[in-house]
Amino acid sequence: MPDISSGLAFAWYIAAAEAVHARHECIAPAHLFIGLCSLEKALDPEVQRQLGVTDDAAAALRTEWGALTGLFARFSIDPAVRRELRQRVGIATFNEQPRQPSSSPASRAVFTRAVELAAGMSPVTTLHLLAALLDNTDGSIVELLREKGVNITALQTAALAVAPRPEATRKSETGLQVDILTEHVDPNAIRLLEVPDVEPDVEIAEALEANVLAVPPADAAAMHAAQRLALLCELSLQFAGETRLDALTHTILERLVAVIPGAARGALLLRDQANNALLLKAHLSPGGPAVSETLARRTMAERKGFIWRRSDDDSLGGSILHHHIETGMYAPLLWQGEALGVVCVDNPQRDSTFTDEDLRLLLTVAHYAAMAVANQRLQEQLRRESAVKANLLQHFSPKIAERLLHHRGRLRLGGERSEVTILCSDVRGFTNLSKDMEPDDVVEMLNDYFARLIPVIFAYDGTVDKYVGDAILAVFGSPEPDGQQHEKAVQAALGMQAAMQAVNTMRMARGLVTCGIGIGVHCGEVVHGFIGTPEQMEFTVIGDAVNRAARYCDGASPGEVLISPAVYERVWKLVQAEPTTIETKHEGPLDAYRIKESKV
């Protein structure tokens, strides 16, 4: 009999317990797999004590179980697999359950295979048993794992790769009197390990709706406490569902004034992040808002809530006297250490009072309100960033757009002056080509081409400045500097011409109209940056270099790339080009280079 690990001995015992519980006469491979998945039962110190498990065997068991659970987690094998396998095995129909189930021929074959997989290592472990079970001809285990999306081959390979190699632990040293092949199973051990994986049948004594407060008021004090608790429950539910801050703040004040006996009026103010002014977001008072800005700023500055009562010699004056504020409570809206605003209630009657309990309630509600305000601001920020990002993605590659969003200092309105490289492409003869086409066909043609050209520009970190009908104006080296802007612009131009050939081949196969583009590339100093509003920014470049790039584009025939001498002197090692001259209407003849091919 080969040496077996503590884990394997326990797994076999648990498998026997599973067979007993299901009233099966034999231990099947499915029971063995359930035993592996349930090995944590053997970690119970009480079970180990009753079975006389030695400290060394318990330590080896924990190591083995750790490796097994790590493997299960890696391949997303959870307790649901064990439950489903138990359901597939089912319960036997005969009445008398066996005391000592024997191994089935299939289980014996699995063990023999595990010994082979151990390859002479001592002892044979649960990982070897798992790998052997995956070789088993009984399809219930493999079938279930495949349904769960488990790669059987990868799992088997991983099991053998991570198989622990503890020192040999004889089966007699575990405290278990078990011989896997002869099945001398201790019934007492089976009873210890027999834990059905079913939900307990429990009786519910009482149930309450989670969104309905049910506090039986025994007296007036209990009624008052119930109203306060109901306020907190109601506000928490409304905060989860209400997206309009103005409606939420008004509800807060209504409920506060209703619940706090001494409150006759209320107001909620938020601090303007731009200029620190206090903005009135909601108020509840018949003659207009009754707020002391002095007290409001004090509660925010001190980060404390307080009850204020006016004395005869009070020198605060101002709004306190004007609104006849005799007593009031003020609480700051604190969120992550920042005072977002203030909520207050007051009473113009001198004989009215507020209690410590009232103040605690106000502070609690203020925390709720601060959370709602912070959440609303976060949502608004996310909406703005989403709109900005969507706008950026129209002009920049995803990589550059993401970089701009992370470095918000560069993402601002305004321009800067520096050298960039301009690429201008234009469909040759587009006017004559499109005059006999239906408008929808023209749009479809341009979309076909642009869908292939724009990704090429983005792939070389270019920025699309604008589309002008059938023309594209792209910039390299902006909005962020790029030491390789000239090379990237030329590579993008050649890539665009290759993309045009691919699109034309596809369109010709479909019997559709095709066209060619000419591309011009020039570099020079321009003013470039963002114009518009923070929510709708547009990137643009302005300067003579833009006009000069358009001239080189005009001089390029279909399929050609013309570059200026300023560009050529920077990329001459990368391309084979021939000098040429183009005629322009206003600048006269311009020297240019026609790219023949790339050298890289």
Describe what this molecule looks like in 3D:
It is built from 21 helices and 15 strands. By secondary structure, the chain is α+β, with helices and mostly antiparallel strands. It folds into three domains: 6-193, Orthogonal Bundle (Double Clp-N motif), CATH 1.10.1780; 220-379, Beta-Lactamase (2-Layer Sandwich); 398-598, Alpha-Beta Plaits (2-Layer Sandwich), CATH 3.30.70.1230. Helix 11 (220-241) runs parallel beside helix 15 (356-392). The two termini are 68 Å apart.
CATH class of the largest domain: Alpha Beta
Please outline the major beta sheet.
8 strands, mixed
Q: Report the uncertain regions.
A: 166-173, 195-204, 206-218, 407-411
CATH domain topology of the largest domain: Alpha-Beta Plaits
- CATH-defined architecture of the largest domain: 2-Layer Sandwich
| Class based on secondary structure composition and strand pairing | alpha+beta
Q: Report strand %.
A: 15-25%
3D shape: flat
Distance between the termini: 68 Å
Oligomer: single chain
Q: What is the CATH H-level superfamily of the largest domain?
A: Nucleotide cyclase, GGDEF domain
Roughly how many Å is the radius of gyration?
39 Å
Helix content: 40-55%
Which labels suit this protein?
600 residues, alpha+beta, Double Clp-N motif, Alpha-Beta Plaits, 3 domains, 46% helix, flat
